[in-house]
Amino acid sequence: MSAAARHRKEWWATFVMRAIALSTMAIVVMILGDIFLKGEKVLTWGFLTLAPVEGMTQGGIFPAIFGTLCVTLLMIMMALPLGVFAAIYMVEYAGRGRLARIIRAAVNNLAGVPSIVFGLFGLGFFVLFVGRGLDRIKGEGLLFGQPAMLWASATLAVLVLPVVIVSAGEALIAVPRSYREAAFALGATRWQVVRRVVLPQAWSGILTGAILSVSRGAGETAPILFTGAAFYLPRLPIAHMTIPLLGLQIPMVNPLDQFMELSYHVFVMATQSHDTTLTRPIQYGTAFVLVSLTFILNISAILLRRKLSRNERRA
Amino acid sequence: MAVAFKTRIRRQSNRISRPEPTGAMPPVPPAGRVRVTGRRDARWRKLSDWLIEKFFLLNGVVAIVIIGLIFVFLFREAGHALASIPVSSWWGRAETDFDGNEVYVHMWQPNGDRPKYSLIPLLLGSFLVAVPALLIAGSIGLASGVYLAEIASRRTRDLVKPIIELLAGIPTVVIGFFCLATLATLMQSVTRSAFRLNAIVGAIGVSFVVIPVIASMVDDALRAVPGYLREAAYGMGSTRWETTSRVVFPAALSGITAALILGMGRALGETMIVLMATGNAAQVTLNPFVSVRTMTATIAAELGSVPKGGDWYASLFLVGAVLFTITFALNLIAEMVINRMRRKLTL
Amino acid sequence: MSEAVAPPKVSIRDLNFFYGATQALRGISLDVQEHKVTAVIGPSGCGKSTLIKTINRIAEIAGNVRIEGEVRLDGQSVLDKSVDVVDLRRRVGMVFQKPNPFPKSIYDNVTFGPRLHGVNKRSVLDEIAERALGQAALWKEVKDRLHQSAMELSGGQQQRLCIARVLAVDPEVILMDEPCSALDPSATARIEETIEDLSSDYTIVIVTHNMQQAARVSDSTAFLLEGKLVEFDETEKIFTNPSVPTTEEYITGRFG
C-alpha cells in the first residue's frame, strides 16, 4: 500500500471513531436536553413542595421527593457499614486468601444480577419470608409482612452493596502500604492499623463511593416495584412517636409504611395514569427532578474525588 | 580502597569532641528514659483482636450469603412452578381455536381459565431486544472506547469520558421515559411501523445503558496494553491506526470480548426501559418492529398484581431463575476471559 | 569475632524463609551483639531485607510465607506461635527504606507509638516526644512547629522523624532497612551520625547496599548472596581481609 493510501486510511479511521464518540455525547445531550427543556417548564416552588391533587393531574411531587430521600437514606444506612466492614475484611484481613477470592467472586456476581431479580428477591425474602416470619412470631396480624419502606430500602441496600464494597475497597487499597508497615513495626495490632492509620486516610474515598451508591439507589425502580413503592399515598410515611414520661409527640419517618418515590412516579405516571398525555408535563417535571438529584450527587462525588487525588499528589 | 572505618572515627571523635548532634539532649542512660508503660494485657488484646477480625469476617461473608439467598429463594419458588406445571407447557400447549381445530400454541397467558406458560415468546422478546441493543451499543461503545484510549488527546479525553459516564448515571426509568415519550414517535415517523412501541425502540433505549459500560471497559482494556507494544509498532513505521488495529486491539481482544459479554448481560437484564418502550405484547415473532415482551418486563408487569403462592406467582420466579442463570453464566464467562487476559498481559 | 563474653542480643539459627514456593533465605545463622551496629550487605534481591524483617516478624504480614529455623531475642524464641508480636515489635523497632511518616503532624507521628501502647497523658507524651526527637537530632529543627504536617519536612528530616517515632516506644533493637537509599549525601551523613550516637544505647541492625556506609557505621558486617550467608565478621576484617573470595569480589565491585 502506498504511503498516501495508508495516510488516507488513517485519516478515515480517526474520523469515524471521532464521529461515533461525538454521537455518544450527542445521545447524552439529546436525552438530557429533552428532559430539561420540557421539565423546566413545570418546575415551580409549588411543584416541589405540594402533594398531587385532582386525581394526580395537578399539584406537586413533594411526597415522592420525600420518599426518595427517606428510602435512599435508610438504604445507605444499611449498606454503608456492611459494605465498608466487608471491604475492610477483604483488604486488611483476608489479603489474597481463598476466602477473599470467593467473596470477590460473590461481589462481582452480585453486581451483575439484573435489578428485577433483586425485586423478586426483595418480595420473596424480605417481605414474605422475613416480614411474614416476624408477624408469625408476634402473632398480632399483618404488620411486617407487606411492602414497606424498610423492605424497599433493604432490597436497594443489597443492590448497591457491591458498589459500596468495591469503592470502599479501592479507597482502602489506595492507602500506601508503607503507612501500614510503619504502624505494624511500632507494635500496632491489625485493628489499630485499620482504625488509626488506614481509615483516616480512606474515609473520603469511602464517602465518594457512598454518594455514588445513593445516586444509584435513587435511580433504581425495578427493586422497589413490589417491595414498598406506592402509586399514590394521601399522607407522608410519618408516624408520631410518643416519648414516655414527657408525653411529647414527635413525628418520625415510619419505615413500615409504604412511600411514593420519584423514579416510580415517573414510571406510573407515564404508563398507568388515567390520561398519560394530560399528565405528560408532570412526568417531565418529575424526570427533571430525578435527573437533577442524581446529577448533583454524581457531580459532588466527582468533585470530591478530584479534590482527593489533588491532595494525594500533594502528600 | 579508601574506607573510613567506624573504629577509626571513634578514635578521632575521642580526640576532637564533635559538636553534639542531639542538641539539647545528651545521651541519656537507659534507666533515665521515659518508659512506655500502661501496656494492656496481651491476652485481652489477643482476644479482642480475634473478635474484631471475626466481626469483619462476618460482614465479608454477607455478600456470599446474599448470593446464596437469592439463589435459594429464586430456585425454591421456581421449583414449585416446575413441580406443579407440566414441563411441556413451558414450551407450548395444544389449544382448540375458534373453529374447533387443534392448534399448538406458544403463549404466555397465565391469567386465563386455561393458563398458558410458554417461555418461548418471553425468551424471543428478550433476545429480540438484547441482540439489536448489543449490535448498536457494541459498535458505538467499541468505537468510543477506541477513541478515548487511542485517539483522543488527554484534554479531550478528560472532557469526553465524564460525559459518557454521565450517560451511565441517568436513571434507567428516565431513559425509558425518553424512549416512550420522544424516541418512539420519532422512530415511528421514520420506520412507519404499525406499533409505536416495539422491540427496536426498546433496543435503542437499552443500548444507551450498554454503551457506557462497553466504552469504559474497552477503554480500560486498551489502556492496559503495555506501552512497549505500541512503541515497537511505531518504531517499525506503523501509523497510529495500524498500531491500534493490528497491535493494540488484538492484545486487548479478551478484555473487549469480556466487555461485549457483560454488555449482553446488562441488555438482557434491563427492566424499566423495556417495560416502558417495547409495548409489552408477548408474541412469537422475529420481527423487531412489532411489540414484544421480555422476561424482565413480564416479571415487572405481573408480580405486583399476582396472588402470592399460586402457580402464576411461582412461574414468575421461574422466569427470574432463567434470567438469573443466563446472566450469571455470562458474568462467569466474562470473568474467565478477563482472568485469561490478565495472565497473558502479566507474563 | 573478639572475645564475645556477653550473650548475643539476637541470635539466628538455620533460618529458611519461603515466599510461597520461592526460597528467600537459606540456612542463615548469625549473632547480633548488644549495643553494637551490625550491617547486612549484599546485592539487591539477596534477602537482606527479608532477614531483618524476620526479626520483628513484619515479613509475614505479606501473607503466604513459611519460616523455618530459629530467631531468638535475649534467648527467647521470636518465631514461636505464642509470641505476642505486638510486644515483640515494640521491643524491635524498624526504620524503612523510604521515609514513611504518617500524613499527620510531627507531634502525632512521634507519639503514635506510645499512644498505641496506652500512654495518653499529655505531659508524658510531651516528654517522650522531646526525648525521642532529641535522640534523632531533630528536636532543634522542629520544636517550634511540632503541630505542622510531617509531610512538609525534607526527606532527611522525615527519615529522622521516622527514627524518632521508633525511639518513642523505647525499643531495644532498631532494624534499619536501607534507611539512606532515598536521601542525598548530606542527609545521609546526618543519619549516620545519629546511628553512631544511638549505638551506645541500642542494638542496631542496618541493611545497606552502600559498602562505604557499612564500613563507616557498623561494628560487624554480614554479607549475603542469593539468600545464603557468605561471610560474617568484624567490619574491618570483612573490608580489609575477607576470608571468602566471593566477599572480596563483591566488595571490590566485581559484581552486584
Written as H for each helix and E for each strand, in order along the chain, the element string of chain B is HHEEEEHHHHHHHHHH
Pairing-aware structural class of the strands and helices of chain B? mainly alpha
Low-confidence stretches of chain A: none
Strand order of the largest sheet of chain B: 1-2
**Helix count from the secondary structure assignment of chain A:** 10
Mean pLDDT score of chain B: 84
Range of strand content of chain B: under 5%
Percent of sequence in beta strands of chain A: under 5%
Shape type of chain A: globular
Approximately how much helix is present in the residues of chain A?
over 70%
SS-based class of chain A: mainly alpha
Question: Biggest protein-protein interface?
Answer: A-B, 86 and 87 residues
Plain-language structure description:
The complex is a heterotrimer of chains A (315), B (347) and C (256). Chain A has 10 helices and 4 strands, in the order H-H-E-E-H-H-H-H-H-H-E-E-H-H. With 315 residues, chain A is mostly helical. In chain A, the strands form 2 sheets. A two-stranded antiparallel sheet of chain A has the order 1-2. A two-stranded antiparallel ribbon of chain A has the order 3-4. In chain B, the strands form 2 sheets. Chain B has a two-stranded antiparallel sheet with strand order 1-2. In chain B, helix 7 packs antiparallel against helix 8 and helix 11 packs across helix 12. The two termini of chain B are 43 Å apart. The two termini of chain C are 26 Å apart. Chain C is an alpha/beta fold and 256 residues long. Classes of the chains: A mainly alpha (315), B mainly alpha (347), C alpha/beta (256). At the A-B interface, helix 1, helix 3, helix 4, helix 5 and helix 6 of A face helix 2, helix 3, helix 4, helix 5 and helix 6 of B.
Task: Record keyword descriptors for this entry.
heterotrimer; A: 315 residues; mainly alpha; two-stranded antiparallel ribbon; 10 helices; globular; C: 256 residues; alpha/beta; 6-stranded mixed β-sheet; 4-stranded antiparallel β-sheet; 11 helices
Short synopsis of the structure:
Chain B has 347 residues and is mainly α.
What is this structure's SSE topology?
The complex is a heterotrimer of chains A (about 325), B (about 350) and C (about 260).
Chain A: H1 3-40, H2 45-49, E1 52-53, E2 58-59, H3 62-94, H4 98-112, H5 115-138, H6 149-173, H7 177-185, H8 190-219, E3 238-242, E4 249-253, H9 262-271, H10 280-314
Antiparallel strand pairs in A: 1-2, 3-4
Chain B: H1 6-15, H2 42-84, E1 93-96, E2 102-105, E3 108-109, E4 116-117, H3 120-151, H4 154-169, H5 172-191, H6 199-223, H7 227-235, H8 240-251, H9 253-269, H10 272-277, H11 295-302, H12 311-346
Antiparallel strand pairs in B: 1-2, 3-4
Helix pairs in contact in B: 2-12, 3-6, 3-9, 4-6, 5-6, 6-9, 7-8, 9-12, 11-12
Chain C: E1 10-19, E2 22-32, E3 37-41, H1 48-55, E4 65-73, E5 76-77, H2 85-91, E6 92-95, H3 106-110, H4 112-116, H5 122-135, H6 139-142, H7 155-167, E7 173-177, H8 185-198, E8 203-207, H9 211-217, E9 220-225, E10 228-234, H10 235-240, H11 245-251
Parallel strand pairs in C: 3-8, 3-9, 6-7, 7-8
Antiparallel strand pairs in C: 1-2, 1-4, 4-5, 9-10
Helix pairs in contact in C: 5-7, 7-8
